[in-house]
Design a protein that fits this description.
The protein is an all-alpha fold. It is built from two helices and no strands. Helix content is 55%, strand content 0%. Helix 1 packs antiparallel against helix 2. The protein is flat, with a radius of gyration of 14 Å. The protein starts with 22 loop residues before the first helix and ends with a helix.
């Protein structure tokens, strides 16, 4: 059984994959790679998008402090 405890789960960067400068840029990049023909490409795009979200979240946190 999985028990969720607060602050136990954390989003970590996929260090082998880049991050784009904005979410729009990440979405446009993903769209340019359509159609996705293999799972490796899909994972690469998801990892890049994930890193972009983390980067944007970090930038928001820095600007609000």
């Amino acid at each position: 059984m999985l028990i969720h405890q607060p602050n136990q789960l954390q989003a970590k960067e996929f260090t082998l994959f880049p991050a784009k400068d904005s979410i729009d840029e990440a979405v446009n990049y993903c769209n340019s790679k359509m159609p996705i023909e293999d799972s490796q490409t899909l994972f690469s795009l998801l990892a890049m998008y994930h890193n972009t979200l983390l980067k944007q979240n970090e930038n928001q946190n820095l600007s609000s402090n």
